[in-house]
């Protein structure tokens, strides 16, 4: 059994793939963490429980000094009884106190995995996943605390969630509830996380942890460009291919906090959950609250193995879309070609060129609705701007379909303009705090998605548009962060619930749309990658990776994103040059080579392409159809690091899981005069097989390619790039 409980030594042992996670019930009823790491066959792990008397470590009532919560690794931190680390949960009673003293009450072990109401969650059938529900109880407050653990048979992965149930006769307030917490005794880790900004999302930062509390967080209402709800802990010697690593991510698209605290005894507490700075939840008698799910991944074989576990886990147990295993249509988005200045004639001209070049979908971006000629008006007015599209969407879409193309449409459902019919009718529908002005970003306010009537309105107007024409794709954007997070619809004591209720409302709208249009392809977006998180992948199979489409910048952005997100989820397009974000000009083939490692499409004016550029597009379209199954279905290997100043050529590899082929991407960001010569060693091949390099006809054994490598070419310019395809013969 993947999950067992030994009644004699009171040890819970959770086996996920080739990893083991264990904890025990202490004699006093508390839950002590024992270990997390490589697979252990035995469940005789009680020897790891070692009480120890330490100065200034007080004992909780009914316990002895060596049993202090300050010393013993906890399965979930209590509050106010001697555990001085950051607690996993804080519950305030009506008497004002927040002391919590959770002890074991009962447990259940069963096959399969429960859904989390209103929240994204991984899934799995019997035989794929098993679940433990651990019930803890605080006698003084009569509050129950339920820890959920689900282990995946095929992967070194554990899903965690937490639930608070108010069994008392009084109202309590949850002030903090982490989704997962792990205590690592004797820790010696480096922290890897993904900081960034708009246009340079998910950079890779790695550093030694110090004896202090480190917080990775967002309070922007979205998971944000600035941080990502993910971190990894790696041994100092861990590389891409060797060493231990632990990855932890939160399936949530709002304010989050990941806390890491290394104490005086080298015990590291790592936890993740909703950010307590912007959260509180009022729980009446009999009510319950469930925190979002967290995923824990263990790797004994380096960061690359950790990443591939996340990639495969997301594909098999998180993404539900009809499009999950289907080739996405190659699209052209009109935004960089026209911005707001378009009409039906211009759009059809782009569509005709797209059809001629083998592109499969036209996406109409911002400016098609209300009186939208710039970014100062009409958000919320989701009706067609007939001054631009005189025949409405129906006629335009019919003409686009007649050319053999699908049609997609941009929406920004969560936002509202002051200058809009919707705002004039419902000024209280935006997030706001009475007596204060409302901040604007991109000349817009934010709709109060916590209100059911707002979600109902959006569902009605969006479905009205989708029903009016054959629209097969939506780009769902969100171009500002949340401020003045208040709602006119709830009383003062519930205002700190709004940030979370906002996310729940956004999820509900996604869920309702997908139930009505199960084959609709939705691409998530927030000014690019501002909401690129695992929670969104439950609703959308792909997310616009960044508004920065510069191919050389994308090397870093896509590399960092790959730390836990698969290439099939990364929106990646070829755009115009000079690039609209950096002003840089990169070779047209290079732009295509980088974009091929994502969903692939175009952001440029096809009517202005030269004959040479048109020939490049045809070659890129052919390459997409040839290699996309390998890119989206293969294993991703990061060969060199674009964040390392010593890296001359950025290299990554897509290797087929059956080891039949591999596609190698090489890009030289900057040309170096009289530069070095070096070899690239591949990964994921069959050592005994013979592979042919398609571009030259040369043949190598898999062992040669992985142990000795092949020569990396010298590129004679900045942005030089090449694809190398090896096929087993």
């Amino acid at each position: 059994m993947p999950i067992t409980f030994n009644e004699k030594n009171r040890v819970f042992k959770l086996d996920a793939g080739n990893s083991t996670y264990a904890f025990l019930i202490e004699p006093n009823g508390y839950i002590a963490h024992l270990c997390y790491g490589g697979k252990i066959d035995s469940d005789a792990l009680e020897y790891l429980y070692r009480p120890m008397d330490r100065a200034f470590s007080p004992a909780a009532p009914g316990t002895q000094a060596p049993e202090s919560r300050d010393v013993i690794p906890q399965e979930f931190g209590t509050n106010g009884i001697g555990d001085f680390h950051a607690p996993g949960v804080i519950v305030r009673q009506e008497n004002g106190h927040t002391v919590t003293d959770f002890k074991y009450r009962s447990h259940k072990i069963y096959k399969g995995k429960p859904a989390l109401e209103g929240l994204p969650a991984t899934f799995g059938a019997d035989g794929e996943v098993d679940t433990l529900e651990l019930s803890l109880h605080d006698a003084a407050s009569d509050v129950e605390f339920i820890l959920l653990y689900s282990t995946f048979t095929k992967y070194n992965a554990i899903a965690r969630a937490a639930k608070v149930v108010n069994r008392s006769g009084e109202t309590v307030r949850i002030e903090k509830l982490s989704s997962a917490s792990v205590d690592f005794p004797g820790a010696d880790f480096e922290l890897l996380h993904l900081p960034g900004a708009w246009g340079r999302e998910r950079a890779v930062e790695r550093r030694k942890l110090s004896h202090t509390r480190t917080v990775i967080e967002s309070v922007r209402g979205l998971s944000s460009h600035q941080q990502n709800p993910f971190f990894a802990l790696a041994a100092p010697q861990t590389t891409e291919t060797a060493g231990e690593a632990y990855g932890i991510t939160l399936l949530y698209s709002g304010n989050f906090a990941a806390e890491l605290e290394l104490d005086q005894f080298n015990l590291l507490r790592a936890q993740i959950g909703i950010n307590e700075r912007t959260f509180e939840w009022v729980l009446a008698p009999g009510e319950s609250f469930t925190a979002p799910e967290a995923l824990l991944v263990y790797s004994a074989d380096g960061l690359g193995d950790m990443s591939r576990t996340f990639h495969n886990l997301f594909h098999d147990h998180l993404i539900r879309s009809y499009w999950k295993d289907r080739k996405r249509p190659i699209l052209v988005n009109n935004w960089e070609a026209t911005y707001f200045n378009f009409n039906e004639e211009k759009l059809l001209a782009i569509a005709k060129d797209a059809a001629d070049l083998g592109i499969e979908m036209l996406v109409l971006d911002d400016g098609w609705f209300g009186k939208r000629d710039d970014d100062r008006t009409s958000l919320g007015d989701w009706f067609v701007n007939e001054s631009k599209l005189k025949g409405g969407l129906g006629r335009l879409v019919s003409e686009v379909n007649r050319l053999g193309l699908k049609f997609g449409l941009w929406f920004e459902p969560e936002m509202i303009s002051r200058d809009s019919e919707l705002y004039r009718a419902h000024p209280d529908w935006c997030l706001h705090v009475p007596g204060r002005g409302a901040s604007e970003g991109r000349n817009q306010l934010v709709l109060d998605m916590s209100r059911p009537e707002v979600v109902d309105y959006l569902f009605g107007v969006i479905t009205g548009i989708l029903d009016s024409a054959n629209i097969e794709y939506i780009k769902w954007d969100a171009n500002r962060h949340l401020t003045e997070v208040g709602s006119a619809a709830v009383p003062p004591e519930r205002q700190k619930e709004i940030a979370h209720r906002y996310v729940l409302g956004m999820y509900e709208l996604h869920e309702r749309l997908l139930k009505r249009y199960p084959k609709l392809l939705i691409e998530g977006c927030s000014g690019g990658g501002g909401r690129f998180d695992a929670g969104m992948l439950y609703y959308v199979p792909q997310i616009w990776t960044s508004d920065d489409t510069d191919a050389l910048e994308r090397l870093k952005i896509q590399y960092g994103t790959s730390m836990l997100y698969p290439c099939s989820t990364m929106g990646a397009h070829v755009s115009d040059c000079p690039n609209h974000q950096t002003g840089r000009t990169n070779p047209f083939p290079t732009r295509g080579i980088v974009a091929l490692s994502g969903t692939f499409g175009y952001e440029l004016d096809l009517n202005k392409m030269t004959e040479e550029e048109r020939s490049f597009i045809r070659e890129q379209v052919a390459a997409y159809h040839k290699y996309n199954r390998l890119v989206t279905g293969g294993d991703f290997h990061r060969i060199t690091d674009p964040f390392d100043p010593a890296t001359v050529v950025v290299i990554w590899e897509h290797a087929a899981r059956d080891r039949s082929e591999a596609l190698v991407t090489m890009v030289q960001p900057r040309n170096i005069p009289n530069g070095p010569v070096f070899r690239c060693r591949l990964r994921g091949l069959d050592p005994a097989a013979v592979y042919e390099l398609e571009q030259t006809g040369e043949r190598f054994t898999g062992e040669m390619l992985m142990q000795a490598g092949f020569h990396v070419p010298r590129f004679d310019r900045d942005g030089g790039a090449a694809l190398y395809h090896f096929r087993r013969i």
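Residues 611-633 form the longest helix (23 residues). The two ends are 41 Å apart (CA to CA).
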